[in-house]
Amino acid sequence: MGLIRDVFLGGVVVVAKLTQQKTNGTSLLGTLLFPLLSFFLTNNPLPYGFPWGKLTDWGNNPYTEYPTTGVIRTYDFTVSRGVIAPDGYERPVLLVNGAFPGPMIEANWGDKIIVTVHNNITGPEEGTAIHWHGFLQQGTPFEDGAPGVSQCPIAPAKTFTYEFIASLYGTSWYHSHYSAQYSSGVLGPIVVHGPTQAKYDIDIGPVMLSDWNHEAYYDIIEKMLAPGGSPRVFSDNNLINGKMNFDCSTVAAGDTTPCTNNAGISEFRFQTGKTHRLRLINSGADGLQRFSIDGHTMTVIANDFTPVKPYDTKVVTLGVGQRTDVLVKADGGNPQSAFWMRSNISACSLAHQPFAVAAIYYDQADTAKAPTSKPWDVPEPLTCSNDDLAITEPLYPIALRDPSFTQTMAVETFVNASGVALWKFNGVSMRADYNSPVLVLANQGNFSYPTEWNVLNFYTNSSVRLVVNNKTPASHPMHLHGHNFYVLHEGPGEWDGTIVRPSNPQRRDVQQVRGNGHLVLQFDGGNAGVWPFHCHIAWHASGGFFSSLIIDPDRIDKMHIPDTVQQTCRDWSAWTATHVVDQIDSGN
Ligand SMILES: *[C@@H]1O[C@H](CO)[C@@H](O)[C@H](O)[C@H]1NC(C)=O
Ligand SMILES: *[C@@H]1O[C@H](CO)[C@@H](O)[C@H](O)[C@H]1NC(C)=O
Ligand SMILES: *[C@@H]1O[C@H](CO)[C@@H](O)[C@H](O)[C@H]1NC(C)=O
Ligand SMILES: *[C@@H]1O[C@H](CO)[C@@H](O)[C@H](O)[C@H]1NC(C)=O
Ligand SMILES: *[C@@H]1O[C@H](CO)[C@@H](O)[C@H](O)[C@H]1NC(C)=O
Ligand SMILES: [Cu+2]
Fold it and tell me: Which residues form the Plastocyanin-like domain (predicted)?
């Protein structure tokens, strides 16, 4: 593909030895062939020059006002097994349309996204279900993609079509929510174009940061949840847009898996003097990422789906599931310059090889030469938290209201009677029943469930405060589906009642809680559905760190759920009648 070139790493000259097909299948992400994004997709009507008309990111409340463009973006996804070597170490994976990362979904604010997902997983077969991270799914909680919560898994050889409105805009991703399947490759970026007061020239598109394991997810969880097993899972490498090199000499003796040094890293092109938008996404299984670009500061303009007042930083910290949009001006040198992009897995996470790099070439740089730039020296604070809440202020202000209810939820670990190390969230280690999704039962008027489903019903509360007390030394990226929560406070030990900027707290859909610390969140009621609230570390969710929150049960009961949802349950029920489902974990 003409992408073979010398790369210096750790002082050693290495040659990119694998083709893009071998490392990433049909994906072009991470290569100079990946196209720049437009500011918006143009096959929309353009009232006042934009698909979203006069709505702005600073003057309009996106939760109450969003455009209805009437435009539909359709995608056809097939999930299949495959074998690739993203970092040179060959392994079996699960891919969307043969690509790692999977195809990018792109829409304008207010468009409808329709994705038909075919389950083509064979040898062996298994279920799947895809979650559209960060989307509010107002009126469509059955499209949220959490198996055992909002739907039954899509049975092998079956198809399910997801339909939802892009009612928020910015950067996100989709991923399988079936067990820890996404960590084996079932994920991809989503870009929803919307208004932005921040000015930039070039949209580079997604920059996916993900830790990477050489073992398949099933094998990792099988060991982790074996009697006497350890809940501590180390990743083997760290990738930028699905690519990185690996030192094959570190492979365990006796491991005969094909392994190639210098598989090749991701490459980006910058225009000298221009401002570039990078859409950072932590799509990993576990690792907290610290992202930087040698010789450049970054301006943060959005955290998750929330545009924020711009602030400058040398390092952006992203927990699993989080996104940060940054602007970077190519003013670090002359047109022949090249720089390293870096993503380091934090010392808060467990990683054998935490350092990912990619190359940024200015317009006239020789892409046959590796950058020689020096890293910023920014010592890690080791709090395992996100950027200071005092500086992450939403562009559109919303004042915190008084909560109508406060729920305290402890995070704990324990060893069960079989000697298996598990997580408890609010006193329960969650285990889903794939055959009986909570939402479908609620729609039938059944609101009493087994304790191990860990369902909390908040009825018609107007605003619910969640106080998460982390009694474990590990940090956790806490994610709530269907909402942007307000982040009131985060810190060590117990909460002292302080709220950071109650006039306009940070809003987002994932927030880190530090080890032995607290996190205080609040969300407004009104979005009827059953919404998972869980740790986004794949291994922790698998080990039971998962809950589901019911909002507005009466409206769920009256909701019309499309027959495709019932059909998916009938298909799953038929398949499980003749196949034993080896549900090794919580199910999510
Ligand atoms: C389905 O999976 C098989 C086996 O992994 C693969 O050969 C085939 O190309 C896949 N079909 C589609 C449509 O992706
Ligand atoms: C990332 O890791 C490199 C070592 O590979 C180090 O030199 C650099 O300072 C680190 N960057 C940050 C922001 O921590
Ligand atoms: C302990 O947890 C494992 C994994 O979830 C489960 O298979 C096993 O049945 C549990 N043991 C008991 C006694 O509950
Ligand atoms: C509600 O669903 C649960 C789980 O399937 C079941 O155990 C219970 O019997 C059901 N309750 C009613 C009233 O149908
Ligand atoms: C708020 O949620 C709590 C906890 O489930 C419940 O007891 C209370 O009745 C709810 N309040 C309203 C107004 O729905
Ligand atoms: Cu966790």
Answer: 79-195, 206-364, 444-554
Residue 446, number of CB atoms within 10 A of its CB: 12
**Cβ–Cβ contacts within 10 Å for residue 83, how many?**
12
Pick from 556, 546, 521: nearest CA to 407 = 521
Q: Give the Å distance between the CA of 264 and the centre of ligand 6.
A: 31
* Residues contacting 128, CB < 8 A, separation 6+: 79, 117, 119, 121, 153, 154, 176, 178, 181, 186
Residue ranges with CB less than 5 Å from ion ligand 6: 476, 535, 537, 540
Q: Answer yes or no: is 466 within a domain.
A: yes
Q: How many folded domains does the chain comprise?
A: 1
**H/E stretch holding 540:** helix 538-542
Ligand 2 contact via 424 beta carbon (within 6 Å)? no
CATH value at residue 459: 2.60.40.420
From CA 239, how far away is CA 408, in angstroms rounded?
A: 36
Ligand 2 atom nearest the C-alpha of 357 is 5
What per-residue confidence (pLDDT) applies to 44? 86
The strand order across the sheet containing 72-84 reads 91-96, 72-84, 112-120, 159-165
Q: Whose CA is nearest to atom 8 of ligand 1?
A: 80
Identify whether the C-beta of residue 210 lies closer than 8 Å to the C-beta of residue 537. Answer: no
The structure tokens 């996104």 sit at 323
In 304-460 the beta strands, taken as DSSP E runs, fall at 306-313, 316-318, 323-329, 338-345, 355-362, 405-415, 421-425, 455-457
| Distance (Å) from CA 410 to ligand 4 centroid | 27
Is residue 497 classed exposed, middle or buried when 0-12, 13-18 and 19+ CB atoms within 10 A define those classes?
Answer: exposed
Counting from 1 in the atom list of ligand 2, the atom nearest the Cα of 379 is 14
CA of 364 to the centre of ligand 2 (A): 27
Instruction: Classify residue 25: in a domain, yes or no.
Output: no
- Asked, for residue 173, whether it belongs to a domain, the answer is no
Pocket (CB within 6 angstroms of ligand 4):
436, 441, 446, 448-449
Strand order, beta sheet including 510-513: 455-457, 546-551, 529-535, 476-480, 510-513
- Which stretches in the chain have pLDDT values below 50? 1-14
Query: Domain range spanning residue 436?
Result: 405-576
Query: CA nearest 120: which of 158, 153, 84?
Result: 158
User: Which ligand is closest in space to the CA of residue 543?
Assistant: 3
pLDDT value at position 43? 84
Cβ neighbours, 10 Å, residue 313: 17
Atom of ligand 3 nearest to the CA of 225: 4
Cα(63)–Cα(551) distance, rounded to whole angstroms? 16
Asked if 568 contacts 154 with a C-beta cutoff of 8 angstroms, the reply is yes
- Residue 544: inside a domain: yes
